[in-house]
Design a protein that fits this description.
The chain is of the alpha+beta class. It has 13 helices and 22 strands. A hairpin with a 2-residue loop joins strand 14 and strand 15. Helix 1 packs parallel to helix 9 and helix 9 runs antiparallel to helix 10. It starts with a strand and ends with a strand. The C terminus is likely disordered.
Length: 401
């Protein structure tokens, strides 16, 4: 049995702790904040993410509060035209052996946290910001901001896009600023007119240089609103409050129903979207990266959390029965198993703005192209992402046919 130090107590860090403990190791989770909590609002979970949660033992708990979606609906945000829908009902669920759900990030985090607290081989420490690491042939040590040293057999950096572990391991500087500002708000569903609820749909409204996504969360009690605008800003910021009128002005290119839904939002906050270029190496001896620390991606593929969950499951499998002296080799195997898939999704998320943000003739051509696709063709388009699942026992991946 090895002791695995996990930097970060978010979704990826807690999933890692559950995964390695399920495969015979102890996990010590070091969280920067005083308490273990998750910021943000809505999150989409495709079948690959739900299968990973099942492997971690928390799939049922997450499904209990999540909302099953019936479609991914693409709308022209300027004309109001319904362009296409990817159905998520029987044929989709049969093909991918799971529904597509949306949830509140806090609910997903709580399910993982409750499972960690119920596991004797997982120890949780708040107020423990990891700033660096050291290692030798026999151990790895997480260094905390107050000078404390926490030593184990390996250190896993699950500390997000601004990862201190990555800063030492990869040394690639600050994240890449995308030039896209995202505006987020949540509104009680009771305040949403019934004809605007789309209560079983994830809806995209695409416009020139901007788009808007909404879907129900928290069992359908709230509507999650997230809009993006390519404004070319070069500064990084996160969670900055913005006046409602400013948000509406920035998204004024969207009209009709999209604008009426945006007007329902209150307490808007803004983030600059950031990511990083893919890298091939996530490991350094007894140290490895996971989730956003390894492969931060723009949220347009709705796969960030799903990929962190997959990482955790594969890492646990890679370390199954591994004695401490073999950990560096097994971390390399984990890295090799994950890098191609996550790189492809990182790049797909970047490229997706070409779908969301065209104007004029380019937007009309996009609408024609999407509108001509059948349900089976749309399912095929997402199969490489949604249909990949990891077998809990063997670590082999399979893609639904």
């Amino acid at each position: 049995m090895a002791e695995i130090i996990v930097a970060g107590g978010g979704i990826g860090g807690l999933a890692t702790a559950l995964a390695v403990s399920a495969h015979g190791h102890r996990a010590v989770v070091l969280e920067r904040a005083d308490t273990f909590a998750e910021i943000g609002a809505g999150i989409q979970l495709a079948p690959n993410g739900l299968h990973a949660l099942d492997a971690l033992g928390v799939g049922e708990a997450v499904r209990a509060s999540a909302v099953r979606m019936a479609e991914l609906r693409f709308m022209d945000g300027v004309t109001g035209e319904h362009v296409a829908s990817l159905p998520l009902t029987d044929r989709y669920r049969d093909r991918f052996d799971s529904p597509y759900v949306v949830a509140h990030r806090a609910e997903l985090h709580k399910a993982l946290l409750d499972a960690c607290r119920a596991t004797d081989s997982v120890t949780l420490h708040g107020s423990s910001p990891v700033t660096d690491y050291t290692q030798n042939d026999a151990s790895a040590t997480a260094l905390l901001a107050d000078g404390t040293r926490v030593t184990g057999d390996a250190v896993i950096g699950a500390d997000g896009v601004h990862s201190a572990i990555r800063a030492r391991l990869v040394d690639d500087g600050e994240p890449r600023v995308s030039g896209i500002t995202v505006y987020r708000a949540v509104t009680p569903m009771e305040q949403v007119p019934e004809n605007l609820r789309f209560d079983r749909s994830v809806v995209w409204w695409a416009g020139p240089g901007c788009h808007f996504v909404h879907y129900p969360i928290a069992g359908g009690r709230f509507l999650n609103l997230a809009a993006s605008r390519a404004d070319g800003r070069t500064d990084a910021f996160a969670g900055v409050p913005v006046d409602r009128d400013v948000a509406l002005l920035e998204l004024a290119a969207l009209g009709g129903t999209a604008q009426r839904l945006l007007e329902l939002g209150a307490d808007w906050k803004t983030w600059m979207l950031v990511d990083r270029d893919p890298v091939a190496r996530w490991t350094d001896g007894r140290v490895a990266l996971l989730g956003d620390a390894a492969h931060p991606m723009l949220h347009y593929a709705a796969q960030g959390a799903c990929q962190a969950l997959e990482d955790a499951v594969v890492l646990g499998q890679s370390l199954h029965g591994t004695p401490p002296e073999r950990l560096p080799a097994r971390l390399l195997a984990y890295n090799a198993a994950r890098r191609e898939r996550t790189t492809r999704i990182q790049l797909a998320a970047r490229a997706s703005t070409r779908l969301w943000h065209p104007a004029g003739a380019a937007a009309r051509a996009r609408n024609t192209m999407l509108g001509a696709l059948s349900a089976d063709e749309l399912h095929e388009h997402v199969a490489w992402m949604h249909g990949t699942r990891v077998d809990r026992r063997t670590g082999r991946k399979g893609v639904a046919a």
